[in-house]
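Private note to self, pasted from the team thread so I don't lose it. Backbone tokens:
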């Protein structure tokens, strides 16, 4: 019983993240609860010593997390006037103090330190999941996949009820949300669609794991029926959701999942990966074509103040002015309005750039871009290792597909700014890095029956 409670920690926390962490700008009380619950997980991960060494891929990922945390801390350290005034984009601030006749104070790199702290706290759930999986081993892959699929299916049902109630339905969980759409536990339809797409390969992973365990035909048939029902719910949910991003990402995801099943016991040939990349490119090109009415490549997008086309161009312009160190983590809402055309501003505002890579380039400059590049190299290396393994880990393959969906979606959205999607992304990265669940050996079980103390293995 004690062992079951232990391995349920991360799956249970993932469920909370999916239910409570569905908005980047709203749900402050719910996100505060998730952040407070994350602290014991992080503390335990730091203080408790592992029984076995962490895999090299896990160490590399944790070092990237450490470097990211160091960058945030660096943005909060007060600098002498001679230093911060030499940074790009600080001239108006220095001029303001001079106009007031005030001496220049010590200031940090971040132009909005409180926003930087808030952004760091927003990342706590994802960090807690990494610590829980790498340091504590408080999970099993099957339970994580089951939690993800179950909550997603419930979210589809909630979305159907939201649609039936119309835009005034009380079932929408956030005051600012995509009304008249199936958002589920999210404020944004795109994020709900993304979660449904990410869940698809984990359905296949659960089935392949059941088959591999050598269970009876009756049990495998029962599992297959249940998982096919879950898959049908996800497909219907994606269709009802009507998110262009969800539809575009679903096509290559289903194809990659088919590769998982077809090459279940052996490595995937190079042509398989090339075919998935080509299919992803074709899907993106189709979604961005004029008939679908997206707000990035159409003529209407070029004249709209609130389109992605305008947001991308304006963010790039601002980024150039704040290189090489950026404006500070979390400062986008303060910087972006300074670059908007005053004659075209309307009641809509940009809370994010709708492209996480561009937003991080503005906020963190060259150091942040280096960290992004290092992470993408790590991810690509792990994708090759996972898919070219002679004895594949099906959950790692599913996780690589899920991470790819989130990384691709981040080019036109900001999914990692929500605790729910960032938690799922952390799970995917940990599974790709061969995080080990903490399991009991037979000798441990025997020792427990005789009430003798025995250390469990990671």
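Design output:
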């Amino acid at each position: 019983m004690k062992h079951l409670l232990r391995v349920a920690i991360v799956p249970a926390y993932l469920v909370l993240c999916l239910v409570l962490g569905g908005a980047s700008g709203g749900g402050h009380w719910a996100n505060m609860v998730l952040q407070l619950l994350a602290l014991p997980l992080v503390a335990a991960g730091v203080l408790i010593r592992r029984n076995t060494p962490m895999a090299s891929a896990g160490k590399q990922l944790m070092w990237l997390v450490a470097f990211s945390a160091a960058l945030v801390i660096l943005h909060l350290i007060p600098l002498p006037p001679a230093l911060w005034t030499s940074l790009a984009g600080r001239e108006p601030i220095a001029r303001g103090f001079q106009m007031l006749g005030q001496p220049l104070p010590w200031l940090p790199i971040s132009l909005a330190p409180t926003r930087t702290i808030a952004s760091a706290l927003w990342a706590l759930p994802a960090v807690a999941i990494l610590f829980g999986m790498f340091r504590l081993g408080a999970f099993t892959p099957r339970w994580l996949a089951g939690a993800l699929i179950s909550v997603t299916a419930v979210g589809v049902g909630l979305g159907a009820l939201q649609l039936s109630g119309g835009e005034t339905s009380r079932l929408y969980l956030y005051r600012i949300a995509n009304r008249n759409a199936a958002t589920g536990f999210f404020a944004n339809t795109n994020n709900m669609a993304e979660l449904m797409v990410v869940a698809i390969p984990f359905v296949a992973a659960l089935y392949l794991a059941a088959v591999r365990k050598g269970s009876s035909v009756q049990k495998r048939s029962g599992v297959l029926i249940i998982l096919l029902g879950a898959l049908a719910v996800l497909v219907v949910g994606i269709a009802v959701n009507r998110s262009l991003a969800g539809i575009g990402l679903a096509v290559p995801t289903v194809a990659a999942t088919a590769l998982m099943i077809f090459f279940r016991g052996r490595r995937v040939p190079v042509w398989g990966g090339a075919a998935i990349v080509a299919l992803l490119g074709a899907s993106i090109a189709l979604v961005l074509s004029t008939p679908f009415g997206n707000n990035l490549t159409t003529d209407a997008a070029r004249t709209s103040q609130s389109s992605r086309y305008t947001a991308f161009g304006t963010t790039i312009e601002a980024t150039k002015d704040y290189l090489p160190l950026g404006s500070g983590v979390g400062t986008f809402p303060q910087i972006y309005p300074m670059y908007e055309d005053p004659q075209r501003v309307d009641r809509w505002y940009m809370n994010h750039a709708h492209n996480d890579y561009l937003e991080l380039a503005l906020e963190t400059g060259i150091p942040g871009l280096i960290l992004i590049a290092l992470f993408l190299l790590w991810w690509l290396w792990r994708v090759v290792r996972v898919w070219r393994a002679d004895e594949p880990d099906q959950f790692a393959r599913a996780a690589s597909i899920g991470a790819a969906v989130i990384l691709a979606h981040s080019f036109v959205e900001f999914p990692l700014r929500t605790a729910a999607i960032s938690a799922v992304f952390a799970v995917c990265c940990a599974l790709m890095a061969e995080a080990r669940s903490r399991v009991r050996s037979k000798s441990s079980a025997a020792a427990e029956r005789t009430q003798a103390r025995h250390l469990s293995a990671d």
